[in-house]
């Protein structure tokens, strides 16, 4: 794992991602990229540093070679994204269920937060489909029902207003998505077997 991701930026902070996207002149959404990563990881895929960086470059809209040749691009982008990859995987694996999707804080406008959630879920569905393929059709009923719900959530981008009832609903949906992602990860990522300690005999 890389320790020097980006000065002053945390890889679990939406602002850090958004600032990098702005500096890359990206038109895509940071939440969608994070969702795509989570979809791949939840479906059991693991990416090398180079593979993940290629996904990042494609999403942001830059050629991988530009990272070393374009002085206008943030030089910390590769290290930041490498750190983000490992941190995301660690949190999906964690037993405390503290994983959170990358979304704007509550001080963002309601519509911006709703659009970010929709973008995150779109990315998650795409990443999961790319990684799982036909295995999705063999998933338990509750996982397939979850996917149907996520498809519906991914298509919601506008709301009448951001009143208190809407805020509660958005928080509830976000929590549903969060727990659903953990369920998918648990389904497609069986616990790793602990290797036998030195001197232990296998029978």
Note down, in words, how this protein is organized.
It comes from Marinobacter segnicrescens. This protein is mainly alpha-helical and 203 residues long. The protein has one domain: Up-down Bundle (Four Helix Bundle (Hemerythrin (Met), subunit A)), CATH 1.20.120.740. The protein is built from 8 helices and no strands. The longest helix is centred in the last third of the chain and has 25 residues.
Per DSSP E runs of 2 or more residues, the count of β-strands stands at: 0
Main sheet: strands, sense, barrel: none
Q: Helicity, in percent? A: 55-70%
Mean pLDDT: 87
CATH topology: Four Helix Bundle (Hemerythrin (Met), subunit A)
Q: What is the string of helix and strand elements?
A: HHHHHHHH
CATH architecture: Up-down Bundle
- Write down the Rg: 18 Å
**CATH first level: which class?**
Mainly Alpha
> How would you name the oligomeric state of the polypeptide chains in this document?
single chain
Give the number of helices: 8
Tell me, briefly, the overall form: globular
| Spatial separation of the terminal alpha carbons | 35 Å
CATH superfamily: YgfB uncharacterised protein family PF03695
Percent of residues in β-strands = under 5%
Uncertain segments are 1-8, 197-203
């Amino acid at each position: 794992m890389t320790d020097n991701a980006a000065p002053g930026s945390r890889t679990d902070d939406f602002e850090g991602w958004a600032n990098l996207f702005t500096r890359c002149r990206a038109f895509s959404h940071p939440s969608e990229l994070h969702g795509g990563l989570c979809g791949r990881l939840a479906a059991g895929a693991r990416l090398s540093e180079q593979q993940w960086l290629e996904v990042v470059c494609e999403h942001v809209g830059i050629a991988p070679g530009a990272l070393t040749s374009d002085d206008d691009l943030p030089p910390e982008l590769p290290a930041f994204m490498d750190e983000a990859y490992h941190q995301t995987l660690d949190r999906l694996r964690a037993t405390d269920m503290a994983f959170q999707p990358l979304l704007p804080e509550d001080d963002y406008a309601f519509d911006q937060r709703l659009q970010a959630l929709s973008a995150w879920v779109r990315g998650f569905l795409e990443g999961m489909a790319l990684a799982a393929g036909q295995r999705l059709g063999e998933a338990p009923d509750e996982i397939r029902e979850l996917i149907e719900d996520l498809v519906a959530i991914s298509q919601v981008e506008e709301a009448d207003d951001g009143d208190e009832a809407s805020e509660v609903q958005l928080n509830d949906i976000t929590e549903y998505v969060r727990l659903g992602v953990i369920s998918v990860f648990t389904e497609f990522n069986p616990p790793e077997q602990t290797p036998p300690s030195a001197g232990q005999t296998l029978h």
